[in-house]
Amino acid sequence: VGTQPKTIGVLTSGGDAPGMNACIRAITRAAVYRGLCVVGYRFGYKGLLAGDCRPLDGRSVSNIIQRGGTILGSSRCAEFESEEGRRKAAENLRRSKVDALLVIGGEGTMNGARELTEQWDGQIIGIPGTIDNDLGGTDWTIGFFTALDTALDSIDKIRDTAEAFDRVFLVEVMGRLAGDIALGVGIAGGAEEILIPEMPEDIETIGQRVRESKERGKLSYIIVVAEGFCKGGAIEVAKRLSEITSLTCTPCVLGHTQRGGSPAAYDRILGTRLGIHAVEAALDGATGVMVGEIDGNVALTRFEDLGTRRRAIDPAFWQKVNVILRS
Ligand code: F6P
Hints:
The protein is an alpha/beta fold. About 40% of the residues lie in helices and about 20% in strands. The protein contains eleven helices and eleven strands. The mean pLDDT is about 95.
């Protein structure tokens, strides 16, 4: 059993996600309560490479739980992908006498954390923060619930104009590799079609369904498209569907609006719960693991076991959802 950590470093990396601030706040306060010092690195792994950090205390994380983004800043850092970069980061961590590093982010962040374990002998613990909900080792990632609500709000508004104009709309939501946001808002927004990378579909067939629905007198027709469904996303699908159906098919890309905004209740609760647990895990000597929530319980998964697993969509569920989309 090694000695307990005295100083904890924390950073947020990759696409920022609402609820990251709740997590920073929980980590800081739980750590201070246990007598630890906390330093926050600026702009993710970039700050680790530049040695850009500042001390955090209970007061410095006041009044942030309701704010989107991350008070620490975030980035995607190409330099950290090289071994030399990670060696430099390790040196900076040693120089700042950090004993345990807590990283909040998505898949790229967890991969970086796993690779850093080869250069640095301090403790490293990951916490899942990404709107995409596409990580193994957890049922939910911090930010997903807010992104769903944000996208849903837009879809409800688009429905009004789609109905008034008797028009087909294609709404593109984020998710380069995973269709979780599209599936969630497609169901909750009563979409007529949900197009996700996990379930490839032929555009001719979709066009046929649109035409049939229109012939049956359906007014609005909303197609939720995950950005990773095909090259060109909703704009490309809209173009091809317009050609196939001779109807006006209007694309609307929601883009980065989905990453911002005040976090939904569950993103704050999840961020807080996982943040507290990450500090406790560090005090228990854990390293090389990500803290997640599985079946309602907090669980630790080794970085090696996170894999690049995308959530497989249950075909039976997918079929049932499709039955209720168009009637
Ligand atoms: O990882 C979150 C995410 O928002 C993805 O859904 C999206 O594909 C990507 O980040 C966009 O990244 P960037 O802001 O770097 O363009």
